[in-house]
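To whoever picks this up:

The parser on our side crashed when reading a file containing two proteins. I've narrowed it down to the boundary between the first structure block and the second sequence. Both blocks are reproduced below exactly, byte for byte. First block:
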Amino acid sequence: MRAQQLILLVVLALSAAASVASAEPYLMVRTGAKCSACHTNQTGGGKRTAFAHIHGHDILSDLDLLPIPPGVHPFNGEINQYLSLGGDLRVRNTTVFQDKPGRNGLVPDNKAFRRDVLSNSTAVNEALAYLQVDLWPDLVTAYFDEDFTSGANNREAFGMIRGFLPWDTYVKAGRMFPAFGLRVQDDQAFIRARSGYTFQNPDEGGEIGIQPGPFFFATTVTNGSKSIAGPKDVQATFNGYGVFEDVPIVRSVTAGGSFARQSNKRNVSAFYAGSNLWRFTYLGELDVINDRQLSTRTQRDKFASYGELDFLVFDWLNLRGVFEFVKVSRDRDQTRYVIGAEPFINRVIQPRILYRINNGVRGRPQDNQDELWLELHLFL
């Protein structure tokens, strides 16, 4: 049974038709560009910039196979010099595999493939719309990020001023995602979920950042989670990294670190880096979690790690492998492995296939499952 599942997985991975990925961290490492080059939000994520649209083919090396009539160009989101739009739509089919519990109610752990299909479902996993209003182009911007996945929910709404100081300094205020760590797309990744910085928990406050040469530094001060910080406390984060090109042997090196004071009883530090060699791109992050809250005494996260290896089989086909680990007190550690394929066909469509292996608390069915994701991503 395991051999059959492995063969099926490989066939699906190699036959998935596809295209362009959102600007995830591995693309930043592969191209040697900062997050701010491709996203209106200087710390990454959300609406793409004109640079990302103009150079999309060069960044992704897509096949551009769709039969587009001559003279017809994809919509780049620009209405006029003051107004532009963007969006992300992800539709995912998820199949969950889990062994049947034994007489003791437990399932085997530390397994790569499981026999039984627990569930299969298709859902709109993400439906986002972005609006950028350049009140004064290149100087004053109003930005909105709305989530329509289940109803309407505002993720980001801020004003940003830039260009008035050297080093491409910017200041923004409003609702935003605090600057912290690598912004991997998966909110369930341990470095995102356990640190508390996902694309589901924006906060109100202000941010200032500078970008001298190959470096980027930003600090965000926000209200913070009142369940953690209390009604009189605030949250402060710092993120800084450098992107160095033309490094001997490798094309570029990215390295940085983050620190977040979430309350007087909890702080998180992150250290991350990435580089590339030949057709390989590799990156990783280690989060050290210092949690002294009474509510977490019986089960505390100590550190979370993330490692990713991408292999460009052809210019248009990316294979991905991920390893994750989170250290939890009382022997409640969890590990996760992901393998997948992301072919690039054009600049507005990205199908992908991922297989995720979850191994967690010994014998607990919900912590020891496998997942097969078939996802279609449309974006502009």
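<<boundary where parser fails>>
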Amino acid sequence: MLRYLVPVPYCYRVSHDVPGGFRLGYVPGVMPGKWVRIWGQRRPDVPLTLVEMTAATALERVRDGDVDAALARPPAGAEPASLGLALIRLYDEVPVVVVPAEHLFTVADEVPLADLADETVLLPGDDVLGAVLPGAVADYRPPTTGDAVELVAAGAGVLVVPQSLARLHHRRDVVYRPLAGGPVSTVGLLWNEPTTELVDEFIGIVRGRRPGSSRGRDAEVPKRSARQKAADRRAARHARGEVPPRRSRPPRRGRR
């Protein structure tokens, strides 16, 4: 299902049917709004299409060319060569434990990983962490993270997810706390090689490059000396008619 994450201006849409343009995939919990807004400012001539993908199918859809690039969670420790894709790791997500609102963990600011040993841990079918956790894994595996959060609210167990997913599925009858020593997931930008011009443009945006940056491809422009800079300033003033008349050099002392 496709849905809007942020108000959508004319420069980008959430759809599969936009011809041309730049197609950016994203998985649940990832918020591409900031980068998309910058794209709209820099490339208003190129519509950006947001495509929501599941965590399980994201990498395959990038390989198949369904999108030009995707903001997704690569498997922990995976290298680009093993994925068959180019990858830039953008940031690590904070792991949290989701518990019922009346749970003992709610009185703590942070929960040590070892404290899960006495808990029943829910493992959803779309788990993105792939980690072995302390505690007993529930016999029933809910299909999705959303389903697992519902079971947490019913008191069936606790759930460990990235904080972004806990926020996405937040409800009043559950609470989440940071999990100290918990498994960390990474959000990265993935795309197929060779890198296209539009993908390179988006890479520049997520890396914070300024508009018009050389992107490291062109030879560096040699720095001008102070004399050259002064000569350039004089030429600019002369072109504007601002050059004062040149004063004669005063005679040296001791000479008449």
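After patching the parser it read the second block fine. The first strand starts at residue 12 and ends at 14. The domain at 12-93+186-206 is CATH 3.40.190.10 (D-Maltodextrin-Binding Protein; domain 2).
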